[in-house]
Every structure is written in C-alpha cells, then in structure tokens.
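Q: Start with the shorter request: fold the first protein.
A: Done. Sequence, then structure:
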Amino acid sequence: MDASFWALVGLIIFLGIMAYIKVPAMMGSALDKRADQIRNELEQAKKLREEAQQLLAEYQRKRKEAEAEAAGILSAAEKEAAILRDEAKAKTEEYVSRRTAMAEQKIQQAEADAINEVRAAAVDLAVVAAENLIGKKVDSKASDALFKASLGDLKTRLN
C-alpha cells in the first residue's frame, strides 16, 4: 500500500467526518446569512439613495425659491430706489425753484429800494437846490407874498 492509497483513505475519512458534523450545511447557512446580509445592505443603500435624492430635490427646490425671493427683493429695492431718486429730484427742483423765486424777490426789492433811495436823494437834492435858488432870488417881501398866496390856496382846497 502506497502513500496514495492512504491519502485517499484519509481524504474519504475527512470528508465523512465533515459530512457527519454537517459542515456543508453550516457553510451553506453561513453563505445564506452572508447573502441575506448583503441583500439587506443593498436595500438599505437603495433606501438611503432615495432619501438622499429626495433631500437633494427638496434643497434644490428651496434654493430656487430663495433665488426667486431674492430676485423679488432686489426688484422691489430697485423700484423703491427709483421712487426715492425721483422724490429727491422733485424736492431738489422744488427747492431750487423756491430759492430762485426768493432770489428774484430779493433782487426786485433791492431794485425798488435803490430806486426809492435815488428818488429820495433826487428830492433832497431838488429841495436843497430849490432852497438855494429861492434863497437867492426871493427877498422877504416876495416871501411874504408867496406865503399868503400858498395860505389862500390851501384854504380854497380845504373848503
């Protein structure tokens, strides 16, 4: 008997012992458990992927809503800025027109004051010139006659 024969006998005994302790069944059940575990992990991964896609879709929707809201806010701010700019322009134009009108009034008043001053100076000068002229040409006799004539003229006007 050679060594090959004993190796074959040992192999048969070994396989018999393995079959007796149900090693193939244990290996099958271990492989079945491992397959079930892998199947469960795949199902969980699939669920997680679906949840992640739902979250992604929700966040994209929220981002679009936020962008739309930001665009609305920007549009409203631009409109408000335009209104404020128009109001400021109108107020500035009103202020300038009021100031211009006030300046024109002051100029007219200054012109009227200047004309009145010139008239007053002309009257004063005319009075002084008349006094000098009358003082040189009229003596006391003529002065009395002029006074009486003025007095009579005044009486006729008062009655």
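Q: Next, the second protein, separately.
A: Sequence, then structure:
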Amino acid sequence: MRKLLLLLAVVLASCASVAADPRYTVVKVDLRTEKLALFLNDDTGVAFKRFDRLDAWLKAHGRQLFFAVNAGMYHADFSPVGLFVRDGREEASLNLASGAGNFFLKPNGVFLVTDDGPRVIESSEYPAFAKRGGVRLATQSGPLLLRHGALHPALIPNSDSRKIRNGVCAIGHTAIFVMSETPVNFHDFALYFRDVLHCRDALYLDGTVSALYSKALGRSDFVRDLGPILGVVSP
C-alpha cells in the first residue's frame, strides 16, 4: 500500500515535469503489482455514484481505495451504456448500435484487462477477446481517440467545444489515466495521448462529469453522480 502511494506521487510529479503541461493529471497503474477493479453497485444493488461512498464501502469490507476515475458513460439509472465486465462476469453487453452522442461516435472502444495486461481496442474487436476468455474487467465508451496511432476522423482541430475530459490508454502492463485540469477539446486531448504519452490506442471515458480520486493527493472530486467507476484497491 505504501508502495502504491509513493508510486502515484512519483508518477504525478514526473509527468508534470516531463510534459510541462499543467492542463493534465496523469496516473500510471502497473497491473503487474496493483489491482484495478470496476465498480457500479454495492451489495444491495444501489449505485455508489460517488468516490466517498465507494471508499466507505471498501473500508467496511477491509479494503482501501487508492485511486479512482469515472469509467464510461451511463444511463439515467446509472447503468452503463455499453459493455460492463466486472470480476470476469459480463453484467452489460457490448453495444454496437448507432445513435447520437459521443458514445456512438464510431469507432468507439473498450478498455479491458486480461492476464496479459490492459488493452484499448475498437469495440467490434471485443468478441474475439471474449471468445479467448480471461477478460477480468471491461468498460465500453466512445469515441476512440486514437486507433493504431491515428486520430479519430471526427476530431476537429481548434474546436471550441472544450470540457473537462478524462480518458485511458495502455502501454505494456501499464494503464495510463489522464484527467484534464482545464477545459480541452477532443483533438488536443487525443494529441496529448499520442504525442506526449506516446500511446497508439486511447479511449475517451467522459467529459463534464469527469472526476478523480487519489489518496496520495488527498483528492476526491465530486462534480455530479457517477455510473461505472475504475479504482485501484488493496487486495
């Protein structure tokens, strides 16, 4: 636990100095040594909605929350819009439908974790991963900011649509979470993943509702109630 607190502090400081960009907070989670989990409801089926409620629930079960972010888009009842796999069990199915809004801006994508580590993939690629088995967690969102190093074709340079946004990419066994600290457009957000963090595939998790919890930073954002939550927890 002490190791993770030090890791988060070092990573945050390192990214700030290397990137020289105060617009972003970056947290790297090495899944060979840290446990990343996906959360939505407590034992009674009530959505957590907030980091402090998740933290309290984990403490009641003898565990600790070290880091968390909102993990994708959700309906009015807080259920996920797309795929939701928790502890190896699929609780919401893959959504390949067409529709309005960021989630349906194709291609969209899936962030998943298997025994081989974390991955960001295009949504239509997920069934092949599911057939192989071993998917421990997965959450679907959209758009896919980067695919094989290329920006999503709908992202507009100099767009005036600027929001607080968060997203994720994966390099090797490390999941890299990014939170913008000032409003940013999709295009600049994607460029940060590609040109600064050197990610080839990156997924947008959400905007406006984006929030971050960090025990190391003494930070627990609350913007509005959340649906799915990704968190680093003690075993």
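Q: Describe the second briefly.
A: The longest helix spans residues 2-19. The chain has four helices and 16 strands.
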